[in-house]
UniProtKB/TrEMBL annotation:
Transmembrane parts of this sequence: 1127-1151
Lineage per the UniProt record: Eukaryota, Metazoa, Chordata, Craniata, Vertebrata
Protein name: Contactin associated protein family member 4
Organism: Callithrix jacchus (White-tufted-ear marmoset)
Swiss-Prot/TrEMBL keywords: Cell adhesion, Disulfide bond, EGF-like domain, Glycoprotein, Membrane, Repeat, Signal, Transmembrane, Transmembrane helix
NCBIfam families on file: GGGWT_bact
Keyword Nuclease recorded: no
Superkingdom assignment: Eukaryota
Family: Belongs to the neurexin family.
Listed GO biological process terms: cell adhesion; nervous system development
Length: 1194
């Protein structure tokens, strides 16, 4: 039979070699195809049979006939030497079957003189394929290829192995598990010797850099590149050298294991030896951290010996009445699924335990005159208490396997136990080890670390960026747009563009303006100068981004718009050859295609921005640089064709002529919006739906979307299989349900809400089904989970179309809007499908009902076709959510005056917002809010005047108290509301809110001091004239305290000033017609929140607090005002002098620039520095020379 099998294999090898040659010739390969033609079943033939004593999954293989089998004892091996010329150095095919009860051993090894080697090694029951190329120049402890497959392969079952290598392509198969690998770097050729060893590394002088042991077990059907190695060895061919004890029959002794299937399992065995010692030995393997291994009674002392696992460590405990127990702890991490040997001995003098040959400390036993065996040994657990046993198990029963059990030096006959003639047991599987590796395959996604117990597995998602039972769900948003609509401000964020897909998250900057901009940086943002290039010697600049090309592509595809600014500076450096039109410089994007359009031009036009706008420096060209001028110019513009972005490379070839030079600068990739986030559809009838291809979420599936409805029920989504299905629906106004079937009947989980979901606001739903559990979460409600059924199908098998918004029966459909529907991180384009579907409309309005609360500080939510924005027109704040306060630093003597109307007559015909404050209108209420920081007293914070000599002033008095003065009747004294509980000019930030309703005024200071006051002077403000911040410049009929503070003004920081819907600081710093604002003196935008000294503005502010504090004589307010007028006149004189000095300085500067330009031209050939500052200097000089004539006229 062996010769027939060998002939078949040789023929298949010839056929496969032809196929491989075709692969090499075609230079193409599909990693999902086998590297060689499929080998026939005979190549893996076996005389193995399943034992009838147990069910499938616990296969026990009987002894072999000796055909095509070799037995290696852990010291022996086979060495095969061959003709090197007959084999290719770039390909290998190796197939074999093996079985062993040892967890470690080398199955094959071939190496070369320079460190190249191929090794197949068993480590802790797993197979490792190690391939190292000396050309890789890696450390000796590293392998270029390190593939791992299989687990628990030391189970005495036969396992098949197939290794296929073709250059850099490798297929590695163990049983039903296959690993495809494409090596990188210099790997195609391996320099190997003309010999290969099986079962060990026996050749003298051979040295490897990794620890190894010889293989101890049996090999079958061992073929190397079509050669039957075992057949050659049996025939004692000279190519084969058998080293050590090699036999051709698998005579390895069988050990009968026993499986403890549950925490109720136990094995009770008697001991009739009568020796003065309690002793036992056995081997065990388990995944559980805790459980009883052995309990033995001590008949004469009513005590017991207890051996158990606790936190993966072995603990031996001897207990006796009236005495403290004796304990020994040994081993660590013994719940690793590997076989561990245990030996224990208890005498009247010593208590010993050894784990894997390592003896733990022996404890002398005191007070125990005698110790006899003869009791019962309980392995793995204790029987029910009704049996009268003294056995105790503090940490529960053991789940795992045991073998080679001995009591008092006598091996236990488990066959007798199985037949009922020895001891008794419960819930055991005798004659097999039923342990399984629940982490193979590893269902923990995105790099999650898998651990397991006997019955399940766990995923540790720490530092992966994902969460959930299988690390499937990303903890990050998919775009800056999504972060924005969670209320986040500008900053650095991790983005996971494909959600639960395979792409990793990456860090970028989100600029939250009216829309969310994504900013992705690269390594080429500095200005780079290029010289001495030509078409034969081109310059190539490469750009490396902070994300991979796959991550960038996913981000760009989601965005509504992307752009990147590219600037090309040139001096006698053209972009296009004007004779034949061939490009002389170009750039390359992610499609890896040459692009010759620059800045704003559409693809294939070969134009620049100036060519599109018709303003190039030479009208006969479409780019400024093509004019070939002998001075610096540039072509700058935005590249916005998404399919070509980002720019990955720029090539320049025309800087080889005399005085020829170029420079370039590439800005970051900028993208805005998120097409997927707002992609939505409206379902008009219960019979309407959208259909998509079948959803494939066999192992793990997640579905997320937003919905908005007024209906009480309806199906959001449904996909059916023959028996399997998934369905998500609104079951009632307060219940959302996820139903599914993975082959063993329907299950459903629901989220119950205390409020109704059919409130016409957006609600977010996310469901997930994986190998561990199913879950559903709606909004921020507590998620509901359902453990995966243990007997269900592994795969969710669906075959119908995916129905969205309805069902295949066109009943119980959904009425309302569905938005941002994603399946396993991929967005379904609802709008595109809705455009061609009756009774379904693309898009959905009404976002402000849900997102309007994000607009703060009197900002108003405004609808957009896709999304919304916050209108900050009537807010003292700015930013995407009207949350960025507008603050200003006021220097000494400065002021901001907001004129509600220039005169009373004009107010009658005004339609402006300010008009509602004056004219014929009586103002009976107002809301005032602002914050301030100052150290100066007295100070005027805010002053509102009217045409009828009524006013409101908010001041800090000379003693530091805050005073609010209302005068609503010209004939009465003002009402004064005084807060003297602390000095308000203490340099700290204070918040003021004043709310007046007719004669009742409510005041709040710093969110903790509140007062309510009734005014006596009146209830209405007539014809409001102006609002003043800082110094009062014109004479006003006010009380003395207000006049004193008004003359002094305000020095410090004011922030978020608002009078009802008027924001004077905003009008001053962000002017827009027709706001009538006058700014006098030094008023600059600043931040009142920043600590002193953190920037130039704050340093200036601190200086003002320290050096300009003090008081003005309250007896001479008008005199001080006159002094200030004199200061204004002096300032005008100073301005005239300054202008004269500037004219002189300009003339000197022109002369210096001429000299510098001549000096630069003389030294240009010596200067090859590419620094950006040098180029900018040259550009400035060039611009200055061009404008010299204009400056002389000036």
């Amino acid at each position: 039979m062996g010769s027939v099998t060998g002939a078949v294999l040789k023929m298949l090898l010839l056929l496969s070699t032809q196929n491989w040659n075709r692969v090499e010739a075609g230079n193409s390969y599909d990693c999902d195809d086998p590297l060689v033609s499929a080998l026939p079943q005979a190549s893996f033939s076996s005389s193995s049979e399943l034992s009838s004593s147990h069910g499938p999954g616990f296969a026990r293989l009987n002894r072999r006939d000796g055909s095509e089998v070799v037995d290696l004892d852990g010291k022996s091996s086979l060495l095969y030497r061959f003709d090197q010329k007959s084999l290719s150095p770039i390909k290998d095919i190796i197939s074999l079957k093996f079985k062993t009860m040892q967890s470690d051993g080398v199955l094959l090894h071939r190496e070369g003189p320079n460190g190249d080697h191929i090794t197949l090694q068993l480590r802790k029951g797993r197979l490792f394929l190690l391939i190292n190329s000396g050309e890789a120049k890696l450390p000796s402890t590293s392998a270029l290829v390190n593939l791992t497959l299989g687990s628990l392969l030391d189970d005495q079952h036969w396992h098949s192995v197939l290794i296929q290598r073709l250059g850099k392509l490798i297929n590695f198969t163990v049983d039903e598990h296959r690993h495809h690998f494409h090596a990188r770097g210099e790997f195609s050729f391996l320099n190997l010797d003309d010999e290969i060893s099986f079962g060990g590394i026996p050749a003298p002088g051979k040295s490897v850099s990794f620890p190894h042991r010889n293989f101890h077990g049996c090999l079958e059907n061992l073929y190397y590149n079509g050669v039957n190695i075992i057949d050659l060895a049996k025939q004692q061919k000279p190519q084969i050298i058998a080293m050590g004890n090699v036999s051709f029959a698998c005579s390895q002794p069988q050990s009968m294991p026993v499986t403890f299937l549950s925490s109720r399992s136990y094995l009770a065995l008697p001991d009739f030896s009568g020796e003065e010692e309690v002793s036992a030995t056995f081997q065990f393997r388990t995944w559980n951290k805790a459980g009883l291994l052995l309990f033995s009674e001590l008949p004469l002392v009513s005590g017991g010996v207890l051996l158990f696992l606790s936190d993966g460590k072995l603990k031996l405990n001897l207990s006796q009445p009236g005495k403290l127990p004796s304990d020994i702890t040994a081993g660590v991490g013994l719940n690793d699924g590997q076989w561990h040997s245990v030996s224990l001995s208890a005498t009247k003098n010593h208590l010993n335990v050894a784990v894997d040959g390592h003896m733990a400390s022996a404890t002398p036993l005191l007070g125990l005159e005698q110790i006899y065996s003869g009791g019962t040994y309980y392995f793995g657990g204790c029987p029910d208490k009704s049996f009268g046993s003294k056995c105790r198990s503090p940490l529960g029963g053991f789940q795992g396997c045991m073998r080679l059990i001995s009591i008092s030096g006598k091996v236990v006959d488990l066959i007798s136990v199985q037949q009922g003639s020895l001891g008794n047991f419960s819930d055991l599987q005798i004659d097999s080890c039923g342990i399984s590796d629940r982490c193979l395959p590893n269902y923990c996604e995105h790099g999650g670390e898998c651990s397991q117990s006997w019955s399940t597995f766990y995923c540790n998602c720490t530092n992966t960026g994902y969460r959930g039972a299988t690390c499937h769900n990303s903890i990050y948003e998919q775009s800056c747009e999504a972060y924005k609509h969670r209320g986040n401000a500008s900053g650095f964020y991790y983005i996971d563009s494909d959600g639960s897909g395979p792409l990793e998250p990456f860090l970028l900057y989100c600029n939250m303006t009216e829309t969310a901009w994504t900013i992705i940086q690269h390594n080429g943002s500095d200005l780079t100068r290029v010289r001495n290039t030509n078409p034969e010697n081109p310059y190539a600049g490469f750009f490396k981004y902070v994300a991979s090309m796959e991550q960038l592509q996913a981000t760009i595809n989601r965005a509504e718009h992307c752009e990147q600014e590219l600037t090309y500076y040139c001096k006698k450096s053209r972009l296009v050859n004007k004779q034949d039109g061939t490009p002389l410089s170009w750039w390359i994007g992610r499609t890896n295609e040459t692009q010759t359009y620059w800045g704003g031009s559409s693809p294939d036009l070969q134009k620049c921005t100036c060519g599109l706008e018709g303003n190039c420096i030479d009208s006969q060209y479409y780019c400024n640089c093509d004019a070939d001028w002998n001075k610096w110019t540039n072509d700058t513009g935005l590249l916005s064709y998404k399919e070509h972005l980002p720019v990955t490379k720029i090539v320049i070839t025309d800087t080889g002529r005399p005085h020829s030079e170029a420079a370039y600068k590439l800005g970051p990739l900028l993208c805005r919006g998120d097409r997927s986030f707002w992609n939505s559809a409206s379902f008009d009838t219960e019979a309407s739906y959208l259909h998509f291809p079948t959803f494939h979420g066999e192992l793990s599936a997640d579905v997320s979307f937003f919905f908005k409805t007024t209906a009480s029920s309806g199906v959001f989504l449904e996909n059916l299989g023959i028996t399997d299905f998934i369905r998500i629906e609104l079951r009632s106004p307060t219940v959302v349900t996820f139903s599914f079937d993975v082959g063993n009947g329907p299950f459903e989980i629901s989220v119950q809400s205390p409020t109704h979901f059919n409130d016409n606001q957006w609600h977010h739903v996310r469901v997930e089904r994986n190998m561990k559990e199913a879950s559903i979460q709606v909004d921020q409600l507590t998620p509901e989970t359902q453990p995966a059924p243990a007997d269900g199908h592994v795969l969710l098998q669906l075959n119908s179309q995916l129905f969205v918004g309805g069902t295949a029966t066109r009943q119980r459909g959904f009425l309302g809007c569905i938005r941002s529907l994603q399946l396993n991180g991929m967005t379904l384009d609802l709008e595109e499908r809705a455009q061609v579907t009756p009774e379904v409309q693309p898009g959905c309005r009404g976002h402000c009902s849900s997102y309007g609360k994000l607009c703060r500080n009197a900002g108003k939510c405004r609808e957009r076709p896709t999304g919304f924005f916050c209108d900050c027109t009537f807010s003292a704040y700015t930013g995407p959510f009207c949350s960025n306060e507008i603050s200003a630093y006021f220097g000494s003597g400065s002021s901001v005056i907001y004129n509600f109307q220039e005169n009373y007559l004009f107010s009658k015909n005004s339609s402006s917002h300010a008009a509602s404050f004056h004219g014929d209108t009586k103002l009976s209420r107002e809301m005032i809010k602002f914050s301030f920081r100052t150290t100066r007293t007295p100070s005027l914070l805010l002053f509102v005047s009217s045409f009828y000599k009524e006013y409101l002033s908010i001041i800090i008095a000379k003693n530091g108290s805050l005073q609010i003065r209302y005068k609503l009747n010209r004939y009465q004294e003002p009402d004064v509301i005084n807060f003297d509980f602390k000095n308000m000019a203490d340099g700290q930030l204070h918040h003021i809110m004043i709310n007046r309703e007719e004669g009742m005024v409510f005041v709040e200071i710093d969110d903790n001091t509140r007062r309510e006051v009734h005014l006596a002077s009146g209830t209405e403000f007539s014809a409001v004239k102006s609002l003043v911040l800082g110094r009062i410049l014109e004479h006003s009929d006010v009380d003395q305290e207000t006049a004193l503070a008004g003359a002094q003004g305000f020095t410090g920081c004011l922030s978020a000033v608002q009078l009802s819907h008027v924001a004077p600081l905003k009008a001053a710093l962000y002017p827009s017609h027709p706001d009538p604002v006058t700014v006098t003196g030094h008023v600059t935008e600043s931040s009142c929140v920043a600590q002193a000294g953190t920037d130039a503005t704050s340093r200036e502010r601190t200086h003002s607090f320290a050096d300009h504090s003090g008081t003005i004589d309250d007896r001479e307010p008008l005199a001080n005002a006159i002094k200030s007028d004199s200061a204004v006149i002096g300032g005008l004189i100073a301005v005239v002098i300054f202008i004269l000095l500037c004219i002189t300085a300009i003339a000197v500067r022109i002369y210096q620039q001429k000299r510098l330009y001549k000096r630069s031209e003389a030294k240009r050939s010596e200067n090859v520095d590419s620094a950006e500052a040098v180029l900018k200097s040259e550009l400035n000089i060039q611009n200055a020379v061009n404008e010299n004539q204009k400056e002389y006229f000036f």
